[in-house]
Amino acid sequence: MSSHAAHADAHAHPAIGTYLKIGLTLFILTALEVGAYEVVHRGQPAGFAHLLEPVVVPVLLILSAIKFALVAMFYMHLKSDGRLLSTVFVFSLVIAAVVITALMLLFAYLHHVAPTKVPGGP
Amino acid sequence: MAEHAHALEHHTATGIDSRKLAIWTFIGSECLFFASLIGTYLVYKGRDVIGPKPHAEWLLNGKVQEQMLEIPLVTFGTALLLFSSLFVVMALNGAQRGNRRQLITWLVATICCGVFFVGMQVFEFTHFYHRGMGYTTNLFSSTFYTLTGFHGTHVTIGLIWLTSVLVVALRGKLPPEKALNLEIAALYWHFVDVVWIVIFPVVYLIR
């Protein structure tokens, strides 16, 4: 990469202010994650814990997904770099999600249905 | 002349440097690797016949033991890893602008955060072992050590990579036109961070 290209690349990437804002957002989202865990785990305050408990798993997963997307878009520069790189990454993530879902479905089937068919099983 | 030749060397049909495309392809394959580990952890989650339990009390020689996972310690490690991602983009910004002081300062900060994270993990593993959780103790211990251990290994590799870039920078051999060398190492480091962003709630926060 030439010096000119390096400078062009630097200009295409977010400014320091943006990096700091993303860092602060990531910190706040992590604090919210741990806060949600602590509220449900300790059951205090009782009313809020009762309200949060049924939705804590989706809340944690959504917060995690937002953090993941922020790092990928701004720190890994997918927002400013070529679409090809985003395609490579997103395609891999889709396959990864399929792998996890398939594993969970297969083992759920194994644990709930198959044990009754295993010779010598219950 | 040499610089011009260097620029021509990395001209590609896609317009993206081949080394950058290569690291992204590698990161894609790593996504599948960690997906299989996370999937395995989730499949066996809560299916332990004996303790230790990650989120509940358990019995050892008739004595009640507290839950294994210690959230405050890991939250501290998570914050360090997140900050290290911020620090490495600050270092990259310095490298691209030819600001050697900014590059070296933030790169050292990144490496320090990474070292503390690995130290936290070593402390955690040692602590768990002394509390009676070996690698083959139960399903939780095997899947936990495998998943977080492989992540820790990746962090260690990232640290070695970043340290080698730091040495090059200290020798004054990382001018703006070679900032891509740091950007590629930083991409790997960010990947290690995003994997932890998934592992942290899945393993430590979701009961």
Can you walk through the features of this model?
The complex is a heterodimer of chains A (122) and B (207). Helices cover 77% and strands 0% of the residues of chain A. Chain A is an all-alpha fold and 122 residues long. In chain A, helix 2 packs antiparallel against helix 4. The termini of chain A are far apart. Chain B has 207 residues and is an all-alpha fold. Chain B has one domain: Cytochrome c oxidase, subunit III, four-helix bundle (Four Helix Bundle (Hemerythrin (Met), subunit A)). Chain B contains 6 helices and 2 strands. Chain B has helices spanning 2-9, 18-44, 71-97, 100-130, 139-170, 179-205; strands at residues 58-60, 63-65. In chain B, a hairpin with a 2-residue loop joins strand 1 (58-60) and strand 2. Mean pLDDT of chain B is 91; it is low at 1-8. At the A-B interface, helix 1, helix 2, helix 4 and helix 5 of A face helix 1, helix 2, helix 3 and helix 6 of B.
Total beta strands of chain A: 0
Name of the top-level CATH class of chain B: Mainly Alpha
User: Structural class of the helices, strands and pairings of chain B?
Assistant: mainly alpha
Query: Gap between N and C termini of chain B, in Å?
Result: 61 Å
Named at the architecture level, the CATH assignment of chain B is: Up-down Bundle
Oligomer: heterodimer
Number of helices of chain B: 6
CATH superfamily of chain B: Cytochrome c oxidase, subunit III, four-helix bundle
> Major beta sheet of chain A, specifics?
none
**Biggest interface between protein chains, with counts per chain?**
A-B, 54 and 62 residues
